[in-house]
Write a structure and sequence with these properties.
Structural class: alpha+beta
Mean pLDDT: 80
Number of strands: 12
Number of helices: 9
Order of helices and strands: HHHEEEHEEHEHHHEEEEEEH
Distance between the termini: 4 Å
Strand content: 35-45%
Low-confidence stretches: 16-30
Length: 268
């Protein structure tokens, strides 16, 4: 494996782990102001944004598909009061990135999110290549500084993975509208939909309960490799969330892995 290829491989692990968090795959290009919503819709959605933001945490179940590149499922709990925190179990279910991860001995992993960095637990086969260490540490500032742009906007994307950020994107829609009342996972909800701009048009749908909390969110768009879609369910708002830093002795730093890979430790 060449240095450039190794660099891309490790960076892709960082990015795909972030995508699983909730909405990173569709939030980076969308505006977050509220100029598009009508007055009545904006008032209702602002109430949802405030209630969801105040809740501070929730359990999350999500599935993400990015064309031929990636499909995955994630399950866990996230908090957003003092920066993004939480733990997710991420299972790679298909796509070229999943094949790369499988070659690295990982089909599922634990991801721990902290305000300054996140940690991804790889499999034993990967650990054997990096001195027995199972965790990779990704400091957001380090990802932002990658010269080839692989981590550009990464930290900002991470900040946009919480449910109230989905409401902000919907508020920016010029065609936001209430679809109607529906039952979602046994709960009475109001369905909202809208289209947001960016590199390509994306649709955002949310289902909100009588406490103005998101129950479900669906985002759809396109990537260079095909259709992009993500569905997330939220429950247990206000749940206690924790994410401990893994032991330093069992952790490899992303920057150091890049240097080592560029030096050829992974071979061909």
């Amino acid at each position: 494996m060449t240095g450039a290829t190794a660099r891309h491989t490790v960076a892709s692990i960082a990015v795909t782990a972030a995508l699983a968090c909730a909405t990173a795959c569709t939030s980076a290009d969308g505006p977050t102001d509220s100029t598009g919503a009508t007055d009545r819709s904006e008032q209702s959605l602002r109430s949802v944004e405030r209630a969801t933001g105040r809740a501070g945490s929730a359990r999350v179940e999500s599935t993400t598909v990015m064309g031929r590149e990636l499909s995955l499922a994630a399950d866990g709990a996230l908090g957003w009061r003092d920066g993004l925190t939480g733990t997710l179990t991420i299972t790679y279910t298909g796509g070229t990135t999943a094949e790369t991860m499988r070659r690295l001995g990982t089909t599922a992993m634990e991801a721990r999110y902290l305000p300054d960095a996140y940690y991804a637990r790889m499999g034993d086969a990967f650990a054997d290549r990096v001195g027995g260490r199972h965790w990779i540490k990704y400091v957001y500032a380090d990802l932002e500084s990658l010269g080839d742009g692989a981590g550009a906007g990464f930290a900002d994307q991470m900040r946009k993975t919480t449910p109230h950020e989905a409401v902000k994107r919907l508020l920016a829609s010029d065609d936001v509208r209430k679809v109607g009342e529906e039952t979602t996972r046994g709960r009475r909800t109001t369905h909202w939909t809208g289209t947001i701009g960016g590199a390509t048009a994306q649709t955002v749908d949310i289902w909100v309960d009588d406490r103005d909390l998101l129950v479900k969110k669906v985002e759809r768009g396109r990537t260079e490799t095909g259709e992009l879609s993500q569905t997330a369910y939220y429950s247990d708002y206000g749940v206690a969330v924790s994410a401990e830093r893994p032991p330093a002795a069992d952790t490899a730093d992303f920057k150091e892995l890049l240097k080592a890979q560029e030096g050829g430790w992974e071979g061909s």
